[in-house]
Amino acid sequence: MRPDTLSAAQELPGHNGRVPRPVCPADAAVIALHRYPEEADAHERPVYAAWVADALRRGVYVGFLALDEETVVAGAGLTLLEWGPTRGDASPCRARIVNVWTHPEQRRRSLARTLVTLCLEAARERGVTRVSLGTSGMARPLYEGLGFRASGTGIGLVLGGEEPPAEA
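Request: output the structure for the sequence above.
Response:
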């Protein structure tokens, strides 16, 4: 199932009426809620929603939502990063899987797997050869099942600001 051929009427195979569709700028607030579900982070949502809406318009964000009738039950996104060609890889872009979320009552039904697969297909269609993501221990088997492997070669630096909280 190619992402650009999805219609609102196409159901996810084996997902009891849940319908996937590409995201649009009007979905930015929902995506921001998925990224910042905790009320303590509610102040982050408007800034992120504005970024998502703009990134969608610029073509550097692609995402999909699964709906049960009109209720969003899962989502996943792909951020496209202009990286430049590297040794052994002529593709100028990289991508990062982001905002993977499934309603707690809908988990373990392959919704996230299906939506992430749609994101990976969108990356392939754009010539992206390298995709990364951050994950929790609970979601690691999902991503490993899709072929992701741990990579511990990167280190980071925050320029001009507070250090981010340590990742678990």
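The helical segments are 28-35, 45-58, 111-125, 140-145.
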